[in-house]
């Protein structure tokens, strides 16, 4: 009588699984942000070069360079933010996993 089945995961197992999933998500976001920063940085350099080659439109190129540099800085900041979120998720996954 009274057989007790454990079909559901324990709360700790679930928390550890969620933590790993969250860690992966933040890792991907960090990589995307790094790509964005690199691309925007490259574009800023490209516009800086164009400003020298094309003095007639230098002002336009400098504005584009400034915008791209701002985007690069924002993307880099976001990458750092995601890196910290990833570390937090990893820590939570570890702690959730060790408690039985």
Automatic annotation (TrEMBL):
Residues 31-44 have a biased composition (Low complexity). Pfam families: ABA_WDS. Residues 1-61, 76-100 are annotated as: Disordered. It comes from the Eukaryota. Residues 82-100 have a biased composition (Basic residues). Residues 10-22 have a biased composition (Basic and acidic residues). Belongs to the abscisic acid and water stress-induced protein family. This is Abscisic stress-ripening protein 1.
């Amino acid at each position: 009588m009274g057989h007790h089945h454990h079909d559901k995961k324990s709360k700790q197992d679930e928390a550890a699984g969620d933590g790993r999933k969250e860690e992966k998500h933040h890792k991907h976001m960090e990589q995307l942000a790094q790509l964005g920063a690199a691309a925007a940085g490259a574009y800023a350099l490209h516009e800086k070069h164009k400003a020298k080659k094309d003095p007639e439109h230098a002002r336009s190129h400098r504005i584009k360079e400034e915008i791209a540099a701002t985007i690069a800085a924002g993307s880099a900041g976001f990458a750092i933010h995601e890196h910290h979120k990833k570390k937090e998720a990893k820590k939570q996954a570890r702690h959730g996993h060790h408690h039985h």
